[in-house]
Amino acid sequence: AEGALEKYSELYADVKYQTERMLKAIDRFAITSVCRALARWEKQGRELCPISVNLSSSNMNDPDFADECSEICRSFGVKPESIGFEINEGVLLQDPARAVAFTRRLRSKGFRFIVDEFGADASALRLLSDLRPDEVKLSRAFFADETDTRDGRFMVENLLRLCAQLHVSGVAQGVDSAAQAEYLMDAACDMVQGFS
User: Fold this and answer.
1) CB–CB of 51/38 below 8 Å?
2) d(CA 182, CA 153)
């Protein structure tokens, strides 16, 4: 039995390593694609807006990630501040010290940093001051119809107020009705996503 467990452990380690390599390659492909598109749009004379790229947690252990992304941007003539990296709040909470170091490296290269799915899990509000994100995307869990209560609205309004005081853009994601969009805009939400 011990030999079987040893082989399983080796196989698990290999699969985990291969998965992380694949996720890192996908992230770099996404970043390269975004830079290529931004460069093309700029040549066409289009007005550019920042683009967000979701990152896997695999890159948080890579001390060269920010440098590699900076080099990709340079090769296409794209300014790093044109790109925001989204990392899920739950991932950040797994190892806050590592998250702070990783986001500081990204921001030192000029990239924007976005906490994705903010508030979906047990939120650590101190992340806002420690990580200093440019933008926070509020989970629809705060304003979905089933949570549209006096307390829910109080929470949304105060989170948006807190974001404004910290100079962090507040974005509501997963908006699915005109009423939600109107309420959020009245509550000084910087942007809503999902309802058209």
Assistant:
1) yes
2) 13
Distance CA 137, CA 113 (A): 11
What percentage of the chain carries pLDDT values higher than 70?
89
Please name the residue that has the structure tokens 């105060």. Answer: 158
pTM, whole model, 2 decimals?
A: 0.67
Q: b/e string for 110-143 if b means 16 or more Cβ within 10 A?
A: ebbbbbbbbbbeebeeebbebbebbbbbbbbebb
d(CA 11, CA 130): 38
Give the tens place of pLDDT for each residue, 121-135. Answer: 655 677 777 788 999
**What's the pLDDT band for 178 if we cut at 50, 70, 90?**
confident
For residues 37 and 34, what is the distance between their CA atoms, to the nearest angstrom?
A: 5
- Please answer whether residues 180 and 152 qualify as being in contact, where contact means their C-beta atoms are separated by less than 8 angstroms: no
